[in-house]
Amino acid sequence: MPHLSPISWLTSMFMFWFSVSLLFSSLWWSNNYTFNSKMTSYSSSSSKPWNWS
């Protein structure tokens, strides 16, 4: 394994973490979107006793 300079090592680490965070954020946003739409449809179709005063 060749010795990497600190600049290239930081660049590769940054690109790696950037791609990983991008992947996780896209997964999280898609899950969050479907979850929110399900919860909205569920709450609109059902009665909401916690909103009763």
Mean pLDDT: 76
- Tell me the β content: under 5%
**Unreliable stretches:** none
**Number of separate strands:** 0
Q: Specify the number of helices.
A: 1
Radius of gyration: 22 Å
Order of helices and strands: H
Structural class, by secondary structure, is mainly alpha
Q: What sort of overall outline do the alpha carbons produce when their principal axes are compared?
A: rod-shaped
For the record, give the distance between the C-alpha atoms at the N and C termini, rounded to a whole number.
Answer: 69 Å
Helix content: over 70%
Largest sheet: none
Keywords: Membrane, Mitochondrion, Transmembrane, Transmembrane helix
Protein name: ATP synthase F0 subunit 8
